[in-house]
Amino acid sequence: MISQIVRANPYGWVIVAMTFLILGLVLTARSSLGLMIPQWEAEFGWDRTFLSSGGAIMLVVIGTLAPAAGLLIDRMGSRIVYVVALIVVGIAMAATATMREAWQFIWIFCVVAGIGFSAISAPMIATTIALYFDDHRGIATGIATSGATGGVMLLMPALAIGVETIGWRASYVVMGLACVGLAVLTRIMIKREGGPHRGKQSTPSRLAASLGTILSGRTFWLLFAGFVICGFTTVGAIRVHLLPYAAACGFPPVESATAFGVLAVFSMMGMIGYGWLADRYHRPMLLAGIYFLRAFTFILLMYAGSDISLLFIFAVLFGIFDFSTFPVVASIVASHLGLRTMGLTMGLLFAGHSLGGAAGSFMGGWMFDLFQRYDWMWIASFAVSLLAALFSILIRENRDDGVAAVEPAPA
Questions:
Q1: Is 332:402 a contact under the CB 8 Å cutoff?
Q2: Domain ranges, residue 53
Q3: Which of these, 1, 81, 84, 275, is most buried using a 10 Å CB contact count?
Q4: DSSP H helical ranges for 217-341
Q5: 134 in any annotated domain
Q6: Could you tell me the pTM of the whole model?
């Protein structure tokens, strides 16, 4: 069964492997802020509100530029976009290793690295995979986008060990060099996409027509509202604040980073599993179920502060419902809104995801400084996750082929 699937589209699975690696390395670099917050608090005397605000600025940069990155993938292909983004991230990570002042943190790590992060994300990877797969798109998307967690699973504990042994500055230099090296491999391995799914050359009128069509339907707005909440509860609440929460509870850094890695393992399993399910079952109800079950993991997290074993249980459960939204949403976008403008659509959705993450990043730091605890952050995450489940139930299922959808009329 598996060998038949691979033989049917061998180069497509090469793309899956490459995008898994790209996403894993870049998401580890982006998620390293959570690991670094206690380090930078101690070394520089920066408070958690400032560092969380920096994370929010980074996510605003990502959200602002994500639609443009998606449009570039539609028009120019993934290869050039990913190569440039990896080089930008690599330079920014190496430069961050030299920082001494607060403004350097904001401009180098949050703004410059944020520019690179905007072009490499699970929604962008899902767009690339959709261009290479007509059959088995859900499972291929699930495997490729699981790099967002599979890479973190391997690299975040390694980064934590590096911070404790060679220091955070040297660790960031190594990560920067790895990004540049992967950019070279990406240039060699990924070909420029072509074929019937590639969008026509952009003109202002055609772009306006595409935007008008995308934004006119309720499916986009229901997905967008859910994705804002998804970003708030994953990137903002957990990716930024889980490790600082563990540190505030007195848990050791390596054990806490290992729990983060466990979360990544089960997140990878969830993405692959829900990608498989998205090929077979009612996708809006799958999406609603993800948000609904994710909500209740935040109740467990409130009780994890006194027992590290509960933190690991949370990591398992939250991981399953963490980034599993991405293959389901990508599948809905492909069939409801079309492949020719999928990069732009996913970029717009990811903008909402990033802005929600920015709000969660800032709110978590602000609430901690205000109350010296995270309980209210977890309660807020519980409530909005239930709201996202409601939005998803309102999406209508549609299995029609979306290849020709959202093709604007000639100007």
A1: no
A2: 2-393
A3: 275
A4: 218-231, 240-248, 253-278, 283-302, 308-320, 325-336
A5: yes
A6: 0.73
